[in-house]
Amino acid sequence: MCRSYALSLGNKVFEYLMAGLPVVASDIASHAALAAETGVLAVCDPTSPAAIAAAIRSLLQDERRRQQLGAEARRWAETKYNAAPEMARLVAGYAALADHG
Fold it and tell me: Do 66 and 22 meet the contact criterion of CB atoms below 8 Å apart?
């Protein structure tokens, strides 16, 4: 696997969080870190069909857990993992540059 893939998080992960969906993700460094921080990703070995099936099955068989993961994912997306805070910092940075220009 390319090191870039292992260390980065794709936009889809954040789109799923914002949609309030539970996520089964590959157990790579970036996904594992997000899972550890938030508890909203079910990570599994991406090279093991049995592990992938088990992770999906565990979510499909537990509606309460699915709903909890989805609600918690949405909460993280709304409070931390969204563009609004970053955009505010970007606009503030441009404003500071304009004031000193």
Answer: yes
pLDDT value of residue 1:
62
Cα–Cα distance, 77 to 60 (Å, whole number): 22
Supply the pTM of this predicted model.
0.76
> For residue 59, what is the domain's CATH number?
3.40.50.2000
Whether the per-residue pLDDT at 32 is higher than 90: the answer is yes
Domain range for 45 is: 3-100
